[in-house]
Amino acid sequence: MSLFSDLVTALNLPNVLSFVRLALVPFFIVALSRGDFLTALILYAAAGITDALDGLIARWWKLQTPLGAFLDPMADKILMTASFITLSMRLPNQSHIFPLWLAILIISRDVLIVLVALSLHLVHDIRKFPPSLWGKVNTIFQVSTILLVLWANLQDFIAPALPYAYGGTFFFTVISGFHYIYRTVHWLKSGPQAPPA
Asked: What is the pTM of this model?
């Protein structure tokens, strides 16, 4: 057990897992472009497992690092953005397409949050911009919706659930986006002593 712990620490396994998640993205896109939804689903699930493991291991072995704090959410966003963009295109063997308007809305929200976080960093030297509860729920809906779209393209009986998934994703994307703006404005009015919570 000590040897395993030493290996985990030496490699900083959470960061390695984040890199693995990033490395899976091109293969995921290629699988979708070929209409191989089974392989795409397996790769997406594998990426989700690395996401769960890197956070768990980082907390358990206290391996949180500045690189990990940057790399983990970046890997998530790249995977999610690639998923929404690719699934909103007409692909081989695709019977269910992710709505393009919803993909644009989701990506626009993410760009807005990145710009706000960058502004806070440049103006107030804030290095932490923690996700809100609404943001976490929104992420769960987005991840689940991608999973459902992939699955529906393999098993059509899943299709009736898609409008509800799209509706939930739309709702939480809008609500979480407005909440990020609200809490940032509220924090700025209160004084830049701490990052928005």
From this structure: 0.85
Which tokens belong to 110? 């993410």
Distances (CA, A) of 60 to 11, 57, 89, 139: 15, 5, 40, 23
Orientation angle between helical segments 13-33 and 2-11, nearest 10 degrees: 70
| Rounded Cα gap, residues 66 and 69, in angstroms | 5
Distance of alpha carbon 113 from alpha carbon 173, whole angstroms: 12
pLDDT digits (tens, 9 = 90+) for 35-75: 999 999 999 999 999 988 887 887 777 777 777 778 888 88
Provide the 10 A C-beta neighbour count for residue 72.
Answer: 21
Asked whether the beta carbons of 27 and 44 are under 8 A apart, the reply is no
89: left (phi over 0), alpha (psi -120 to 50) or beta: beta
CB-based contact 110:83 (threshold 8 Å): no
